Amino acid sequence: MLKVSLKGALTGCLMLATAASLPLGQAMARDLTIQVWAGGSNVADAYRVDAITMAADILERESAIRGEELNITVETKYDFDGWGGFKQAVTLAAEANNAPHIVVTGHEDIAPWSQSGLIRPIEDYVDFDSWPLSDLFENLIEISSFEGVIYGVPQDAESRPFFGWIPHLKAIGYSDADIRDMPGKVQRGEYTLEDVLNDAKKIQDAGLVEAGYGWYPRVSKGGDYWQFYLSYGGEMLDSSSGKLVFDKAAMQKVYEFFAKAVEMGVTRKNHIGTPWDQWYSEVASGKAGLWHGGTWHYARYTGKEGLQDFFGSVMFSLIPAGDSNGNANTITHPLVYLVTNRGSDDDAAVAAQLIAIASEPRINTLHAIKSAHLGIAKSQQSVPLYANDRWASEATVRLLPYASAQPNHTGFSPYFDAMWKGLEASWTGQKSPAQAIADVESELKAQLGGDILIR
């Protein structure tokens, strides 16, 4: 655990309330400790917590200029035993009424933690119509909300692109101009998932990759797979009722797409469960033709995997549409800053103000570039460190404005479990796509009842 002691002053809203009771000229002083824990993080992600330390320094200096004194001690921790260790630590701390003041976690925790009372609506303490929060991407604010209430502030963003190995695309007939235009064709719906399978087959037939490597998807359960549901026009949440949605026709097309990939021989039947290290090595070295992954993979490809010329080797775009019912899309899984129920309202107000300062473009850019994530604010594209990073700037423009997310709904986890079981069963041939859909429907009715609309 890192502990940093800082000196400064209190936010104006807190100070004005206290100032009225003090004799003229008497300086106010307050000592405050703020704990911040971040999940899913390592050294590369340290700015998730270090930004709060930087924000505390700024807040103190601003307050000192107003003649106020505030001493903030920021205690940070991010070295948990994976996401499971982080969630367990937060749960145990909350049960002991000793949760950290600020947590950095996935947006999917907003629904259960707000309903349990663990977190407070951050909109009660900061103004989203004022800078820097007014500069945040609107879709990220929506993802940070639950039932119309803003609970969190996005800490970072990412997207899950479709990738293609450029030398293989050229070998099957694409020109440089074709490849440059491919992201636009995907966005316009002129290049679809059917084209993905056809090109994967051409790449294999040309002997450029081994059988089963033409279309090389993610190797484990992940939110990426909901993108294909959106590609066929599926909806995850009904905005009017707030209920989950299971579109049987759209989901069956997803199952059929992956079953067809296996049938065509461009994806292995036993692909799920491939070691991640093997997968990274293969996609970053041209052993796979087409694949999908995350924007954060760029750091792995160009770092550990040693890919020297990323932009000359890899095309990236939105996930293609499946048919005319759907659209090209991407899913983001932003981590969010949340204020817990720890301490007083005054403590929460300071914690929220620190989060707002940490969200300023230059501070957030430090995290985005160091960790190969995308920014959270529109103006970050004008910050030199961000603008001069080709991957961050191009991925932001090409992907982030079109990103949606898994819904903040307490029933989504069992929905995801059922969806994944059906996908695996149809992928491996244990069930036909139609039978898998029927079984998923039965399971969702039993598990979620009236919380899900089945269409």
TrEMBL record:
Q: Does the keyword Signal apply?
A: yes
Name the UniProt record assigns to this protein: ABC transporter substrate-binding protein
Instruction: Name the species this protein comes from.
Output: SAR324 cluster bacterium
Q: Tell me the Pfam families matching this sequence.
A: SBP_bac_1
Does the record bear Metal-binding in its keywords? no
Record's signal peptide: 1-29
Tell me the keywords, alphabetical order.
Signal
